Amino acid sequence: MTHALELKALRKNFGKTEIIRGVDLAVEAGERVAIIGPNGAGKSTLFNLISGRLEPTSGEVLLHGQRIDGKRPYEINRLGLSRSFQITNIFPKLSVFENLRCGVLWSLGYRYSFLRFLSNLDDANERTEELLHQVHLEKKRDVHAVNLTYAEQRALEIGVTIAGGASVILLDEPTAGMSKTETAHFIALIKQVTVGKTLLTVEHDMGVVFGLADKIAVVVYGEVIAFDKPAAVRANARVQEAYLGSSVADAQAGGH
Ligand SMILES: Nc1ncnc2c1ncn2[C@@H]1O[C@H](COP(=O)(O)OP(=O)(O)OP(=O)(O)O)[C@@H](O)[C@H]1O
């Protein structure tokens, strides 16, 4: 079976320090996976290796069975993997609509010749309207991104991330900095917009992890020590011992 995303014996050294120490992970199409682990465990480095920001020292990254390690981030994006870069990928002085349309046009631009690209502008506008609706920003359509609330900016960022129709989405701490209510709405939004897609998040908030993830990958000291459904990860003695104990128990007790 071909997985949506697969990491094989992945390693990354910075100088003489081994940061990712042989990671194997196979994510099925349509799964939502949260990557958790203590500070400095290597979660961001893994994301950087998957999205092409960093090249692995050894090992493989496969997207729908195709090797992508060593490719440039934009090439990986074109192959169907899109990563949010938090608010930095939003143009502050463009409106919400224009921001979303940029994402759509960019994806059309590479798929079609220039003439075809022009003839597809109507399609792009239609797709942008659809995105506006998906991220619940219709009422903010003409507002400059800089004037949105923080939570709205994060919603816009998700819209831009999914604009190109990528099938694998990487989100880095999508609810960081949000209030509890905003977080709850945002988890619902992420679930809606990623239906049928494969989602990977790096996440610290256990409430978000248990609310969002079908599976959890626990990274400790550059290795995946558990990859399983939330209930199984909660019960995993190695995870409890290595890292999570109290956080998982708290999240469970709190009903998150
Ligand atoms: N470019 C780099 N050069 C050298 N060391 C690095 C580099 N990037 C990350 N590291 C080191 O690799 C280790 C893992 O960092 P990483 O940011 O991947 O961890 P993390 O699990 O995402 O942590 P956090 O939860 O705090 O964001 C850390 O010790 C960090 O200092």
UniProtKB/TrEMBL annotation:
Residues 5-246 form the ABC transporter domain. Keywords: ATP-binding, Cell membrane, Membrane, Nucleotide-binding, Transport. The keyword Transport applies. It holds the Pfam family ABC_tran. GO terms for molecular function: ATP binding. InterPro entries: AAA+_ATPase, ABC_AA/LPS_Transport, ABC_transporter-like_ATP-bd, BCA_ABC_TP_C, P-loop_NTPase. This is Branched-chain amino acid transport system ATP-binding protein. It comes from Variovorax soli.
